């Protein structure tokens, strides 16, 4: 009896202590919450409007043509502020139409202008319509800037706008249109706000004429170099020790020179390399990476190798909202190398058709169709193509590209038939931009092909190429000691297979297939 | 060979059958996907006035999934059709009709635009109000300075009127009223209004058709002042350390003869003979500013100059202060060891003002021991000489006030006892 009493006492004690601790914890939590709540509110950056940057969201091309105006000379600083706030007005409008809310509208539209958007948002919300869109290009010309620096009128000529209209979350249609807007903005408490906006017909703009002297051109179904037929005999290239990481810490010009010698001596004339989108800094290009790209291209030129530069590796968003960021990324790279003689073509995206299912075919193809003309505008010297992952979809966007690129990893026996079908559907030059076979046999792949089978495969392929004088770019020069998981995922049977597509093994020995690297 | 073709054709047939089966559910949901609907636009109007209902009519049979996409200055929206016999019509929402600009429309059938076109919404005929902005709201006179009026005539829905709408910008200044007839361009009409050479207020207003604005005011400020002169007034010329000398500027004017704005700050700087600078300042009222300095305590010449910082300055003037014929009697209490100086008198024999500085310098055997300073109270000051600090038997004494010095001797232990000595040392 006595013992149980003691136990009861201990239980009471323990429960009292635990309750005490719990109450304390709850109190502290509540106090923390209250203090946290009191600390919310206006941030200092909010007062100073420092957060108004669109770098990571929206960067359409803005091209002020003329700042001449009868009112007052435009200051560079003010012009920057006007441009920034004007773009924000589009950005918040696009956001509002997408989410059907009013967020941000008050900051960039004056009292009487914003009601128009509020009514629209309410109407679309009621009708379950939402619109995903972006503007791609602005060509404003200043008409008037008032003496007190508080009012500005400009004509934004031929705004290119892309919109996807959804009704009840179903895509109704997509439009890409060009229109001119006359805009009046007022400076109110530190924000330039839209006061009047009038949509007008597009106008004729004088095109910028640049004389192009391209080395590589396409004519009918042939690619020409300096006017003579050029058959691409190429290879996809990563150094042995830095697969999918050409511009990383292992970057070494000696390695690249040695590799390019091997490629050149093997009788090849072209390499294909990749530019990872995020690693290169998205819209804000990483200078050290682009310097390394410059070195790779310079070495290729020394060794007389043509280069197909594949952009946007590992990019996979495609939503119209982020399009303009990709445009700035491409613009910075493409316009920097527009005069580089080593480049044969810009391959806009590697295997974009693999994203059709997850990202929507419309998003992907519209993104490409929008970007390709822009790349041609920034760089009239080089060809443009898209590296489709299989031969069946290769004719997608064939009107836009200069030559058609496709990859082939299927059964070798069906290759010629499929090629014939493709040839029947297009008159553009065709380039088999990736093909190959892994020589991996082992735990994860008992019945796979070995090095002899790989050699046999390439022998057959090269025979076909030679017979039909086909352009090819094989996958790939080296076996890799490791393959990053972001390339093919984490499944070991896929990753291990991917390691041994090379013509040279990890020890630097030529595999039997090396004999059939070219014809 | 024949067998092969038979097998092949059978296979093809099976294939086609399978294909048609798989396609069936899709084609059910889109029964008209193959046949492009024949639509023709019946509405001939290419221009609608803001606020009026807009109705687009088409001849044709309605198909499921037909909708009208509209894009205007502010809006992108969809309009559902209404069907009447063989016509389809689309009525735009009321708020959409209000804003002017080019409208692009396209009839969407199954996600594809079938028919496209544009029309325009134009502002109403009547100007309902005028939005106007005037700035800067103040400007200096003349010299090409100006303010600018910007006017945007609008209809009742706030749409800017079309280009070339006639507006009149009027302004008034001192009985002169000017009207400027200006057509609008890029929404606006505007006018530079140059500042007159006289300061004052300028009124500006705008009219357009039957609408007019309120008056807006611009302050025309005087320009910076031109060089000016200063003068002074004082009661007497004695350096008594008490009376105030008042320095005053002439009326400060700008180059157009406008009196400078009230409150213009003027700095007066006095330079003494020793190079010491004294500074005071005053703000102008009706163009004049003044500042006061107390007289020095000894004979002096002041050089005075006034400045409006960064804009204008006066010529310097100089002013003399005469020495006060002071009387400085003193006595020494040998027991209490106290020097009493007083009653110090000023230029009329009146008691020296409170706080007049008196210094006593002590020398023992021509060696300077100490200088003591006190300020008079009812004409008297006292200096204590405690034995511990001043052990000598005899000191020479120099007492100064109002710039005048008298000399004497004291012998603390025996010395004079309450001995009166006058100014000239006579007993």
Low-confidence residue ranges of chain A: none
SSE string of chain A, helix = H, strand = E? Answer: HHEHHHEEEEEEEEHEHEHEHHEEHEHEHH
**Based on the structure, what is the oligomeric state of the protein chains?**
heterodimer
Residue fraction in strands of chain A? 15-25%
Number of domains of chain A: 2
The figure for the number of domains of chain B is: 4
- Shape call of chain B: elongated
Largest sheet of chain B: 6 strands, mixed
Average pLDDT, all residues of chain B? 87
Greatest chain-chain interface? A-B, 42 and 43 residues
Q: Rg of chain B, please?
A: 49 Å
CATH architecture classification name of the largest domain in chain B: Sandwich
CATH topology of the largest domain in chain B: Immunoglobulin-like
Number of strand elements of chain A: 16
Structural class given helices, strands, pairing of chain A? alpha/beta
What is the CATH class designation of the largest domain in chain B?
Answer: Mainly Beta
CATH superfamily of the largest domain in chain B, by name, is Immunoglobulins
Based on DSSP secondary structure assignment, what is the total number of beta strands of chain B?
33
Question: Helix/strand/pairing class of chain B, anyone?
Answer: mainly beta
**Top-tier CATH class of the largest domain in chain A:** Alpha Beta
Characterization of the model:
The complex is a heterodimer of chains A (519) and B (427). Helix content of chain A is 37%, strand content 24%. With 519 residues, chain A is an alpha/beta fold. Chain A has two domains: 54-200, Nuclear Transport Factor 2, Chain: A; 216-516, TIM Barrel (Alpha-Beta Barrel). An eight-stranded parallel β-barrel of chain A has the order 9-10-11-12-13-14-15-16. A five-stranded mixed beta sheet of chain A has the order 1-2-3-4-5. In chain A, helix 6 (253-265) links the parallel strand 9 (233-236) and strand 10. In chain A, helix 6 (253-265) packs parallel to helix 7 and helix 8 (323-336) packs parallel to helix 10 (361-378). The longest helix of chain A has 38 residues, at 2-39. Chain A is globular and about 75 Å long. Chain B is mostly beta strands and 427 residues long. Chain B has four domains: 40-122, Sandwich (Immunoglobulin-like); 129-221, Immunoglobulins (Immunoglobulin-like); 230-321, Sandwich (Immunoglobulin-like); 330-410, Immunoglobulin-like, CATH 2.60.40. Helices cover 7% and strands 45% of the residues of chain B. Chain B is built from one helix and 33 strands. Chain B has one helix at residues 2-29; strands spanning 40-41, 47-49, 55-59, 66-71, 76-79, 82-84, 87-91, 101-109, 112-122, 129-135, 138-140, 146-154, 166-173, 176-183, 189-194, 200-208, 211-212, 216-221, 230-233, 244-249, 265-271, 277-283, 290-294, 300-308, 312-313, 317-321, 330-333, 338-341, 357-364, 367-375, 381-384, 395-401, 404-410. In chain B, strands 11, 13, 14, 16, 17 and 18 form a six-stranded mixed beta sheet that branches. A five-stranded mixed beta sheet of chain B has the order 2-9-8-4-5, with no helix packed on it. In chain B, a hairpin with a 2-residue loop joins strand 32 (395-401) and strand 33 (404-410). The radius of gyration of chain B is 49 Å and the shape is elongated. The N and C termini of chain B lie far apart (166 Å). The model of chain B is unreliable at 21-34 and 423-427 (pLDDT under 50). The chains are: A alpha/beta (519), B mainly beta (427). Chain A binds chain B through residues 71, 97, 112-113, 116-117, 119-120, 123-124, 127, 129, 131, 133, 143-144, 146-148, 150-151, 153, 155, 163, 165, 167, 171-173, 175, 177, 179, 181-182, 184, 186, 196-201, and chain B through 67, 69, 71-78, 93, 95, 98-104, 106, 108, 111-113, 118, 133, 135-137, 146-148, 150, 152, 158-160, 185-188, 190, 192.
């Amino acid at each position: 009896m006595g013992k149980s009493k003691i136990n009861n006492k201990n239980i009471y004690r323990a429960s009292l202590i635990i309750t005490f601790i719990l109450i304390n914890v709850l109190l502290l939590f509540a106090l923390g919450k209250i203090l946290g709540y009191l600390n919310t509110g206006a941030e200092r950056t909010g007062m100073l409007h420092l957060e108004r940057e669109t770098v990571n969201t929206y960067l359409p091309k803005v091209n002020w043509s003329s700042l001449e105006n009868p009112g007052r000379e435009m200051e560079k600083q003010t012009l920057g502020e006007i441009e920034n706030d004007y773009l924000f007005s589009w950005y918040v409008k696009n956001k509002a139409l997408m989410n059907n809310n009013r967020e941000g509208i008050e900051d960039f539209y004056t009292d009487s202008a914003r009601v128009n958007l509020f009514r629209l948002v309410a109407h679309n919300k009621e009708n379950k319509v939402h619109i995903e869109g972006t503007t791609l290009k602005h060509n404003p010309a200043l008409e008037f800037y008032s003496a007190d620096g508080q009012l500005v009128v400009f004509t934004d000529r031929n705004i290119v706008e892309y919109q996807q209209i959804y009704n009840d979350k179903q895509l109704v249609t997509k439009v890409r249109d060009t229109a001119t807007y006359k805009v009046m903005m007022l400076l109110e408490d530190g924000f330039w706000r839209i006061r009047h906006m009038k949509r007008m017909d597009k106008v004729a703009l004088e095109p910028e004429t640049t004389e192009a002297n391209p080395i590589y051109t396409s004519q009918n179904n042939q690619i020409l170099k300096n006017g003579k037929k050029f058959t691409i005999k190429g290879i996809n290239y990563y150094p042995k020790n830095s697969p999918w990481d050409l511009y990383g810490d292992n970057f070494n010009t000696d390695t690249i020179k040695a590799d390019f010698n091997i490629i050149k001596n093997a009788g090849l004339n072209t390499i294909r390399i990749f530019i990872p989108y995020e690693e290169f800094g998205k819209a804000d290009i990483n200078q050290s990476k682009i310097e390394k790209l410059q070195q790779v291209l310079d070495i290729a030129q020394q060794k007389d190798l043509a280069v197909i530069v594949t952009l946007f590796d590992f990019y996979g968003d495609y939503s119209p909202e982020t399009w303009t960021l990709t445009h700035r990324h491409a613009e910075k790279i493409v316009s920097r190398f527009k005069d580089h003689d080593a480049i044969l073509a810009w391959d806009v995206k590697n295997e974009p058709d693999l994203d059709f299912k997850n990202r929507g075919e419309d998003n992907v193809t519209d993104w490409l169709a929008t970007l390709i003309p822009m790349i041609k505008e920034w760089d009239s010297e080089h060809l443009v193509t898209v590296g489709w992952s299989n031969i069946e979809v290769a004719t997608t966007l064939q009107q836009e590209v200069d030559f058609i690129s496709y990859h082939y990893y299927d059964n070798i026996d069906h290759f010629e038939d499929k090629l014939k079908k493709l040839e029947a559907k297009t008159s553009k030059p065709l380039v088999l931009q990736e093909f190959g076979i892994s020589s991996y046999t082992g735990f994860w792949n008992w019945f796979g092909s070995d090095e002899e089978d790989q050699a046999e495969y390439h022998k057959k392929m090269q025979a076909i190429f030679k017979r039909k004088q086909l352009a090819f770019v094989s996958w790939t020069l080296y076996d890799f000691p490791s393959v990053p998981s972001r390339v093919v995922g984490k499944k070991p049977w896929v990753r291990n297979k991917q390691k041994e597509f090379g013509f040279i093994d990890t020890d630097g020995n030529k595999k039997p297939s090396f004999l059939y690297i070219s014809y | 060979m024949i067998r092969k073709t038979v097998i092949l054709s059978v296979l093809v047939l099976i294939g086609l059958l399978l294909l048609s089966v798989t396609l069936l559910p899709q084609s059910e949901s889109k029964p008209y996907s193959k046949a492009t609907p024949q639509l023709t636009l019946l509405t001939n109007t290419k221009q609608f006035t803001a606020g009026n209902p807009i109705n687009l009519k088409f001849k044709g049979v309605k198909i499921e999934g037909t909708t009208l996409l509209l894009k205007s200055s502010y809006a992108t929206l969809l309009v559902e059709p209404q069907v009447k016999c063989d016509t389809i019509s689309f009525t735009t929402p009321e708020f959409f009709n209000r804003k002017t600009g080019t409208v692009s429309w396209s009839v969407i059938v199954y996600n594809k635009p079938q028919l496209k076109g544009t029309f325009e919404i134009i502002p109403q005929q009547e100007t309902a109000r005028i939005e106007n902005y005037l700035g800067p709201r103040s400007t200096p006179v003349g010299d090409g300075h100006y303010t600018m009026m910007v006017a945007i005539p609008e209809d009742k829905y706030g749409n800017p009127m079309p280009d070339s709408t006639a507006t009149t910008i009027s302004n008034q200044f001192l009985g002169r009223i000017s009207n400027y007839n200006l057509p609008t361009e890029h929404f606006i009409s505007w006018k530079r209004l140059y500042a007159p050479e006289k300061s004052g207020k300028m009124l500006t207003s705008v009219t357009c058709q039957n609408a007019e604005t309120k008056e807006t005011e611009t302050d025309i400020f005087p320009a910076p002042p031109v060089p000016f002169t200063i003068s002074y007034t004082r009661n007497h010329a004695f350096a008594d350390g008490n009376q105030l000398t008042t320095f005053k500027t002439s009326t400060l004017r700008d180059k157009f003869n406008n009196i400078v704005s009230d409150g213009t700050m003027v700095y007066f700087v006095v330079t003494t003979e020793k190079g010491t600078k004294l500074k005071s300042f005053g703000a102008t009222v009706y163009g004049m500013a003044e500042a006061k300095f107390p007289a020095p305590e000894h004979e002096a010449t002041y050089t005075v100059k006034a400045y409006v910082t960064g804009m204008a300055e006066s010529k310097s003037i100089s002013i003399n202060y005469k020495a006060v014929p002071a009387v400085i009697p003193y006595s020494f209490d040998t027991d209490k060891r106290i020097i009493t100086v007083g009653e110090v008198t000023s230029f009329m024999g009146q008691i020296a003002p409170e706080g007049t500085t008196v210094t006593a310098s002590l020398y023992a055997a021509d060696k300077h021991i100490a200088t003591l300073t006190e300020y008079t109270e009812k004409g008297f000051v006292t200096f204590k000489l405690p034995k511990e600090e001043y052990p000598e038997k005899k000191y020479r004494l120099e007492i100064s006030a109002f710039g005048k010095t008298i000399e004497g001797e004291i012998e603390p232990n025996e010395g004079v006892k309450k001995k009166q000595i006058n100014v000239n040392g006579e007993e």
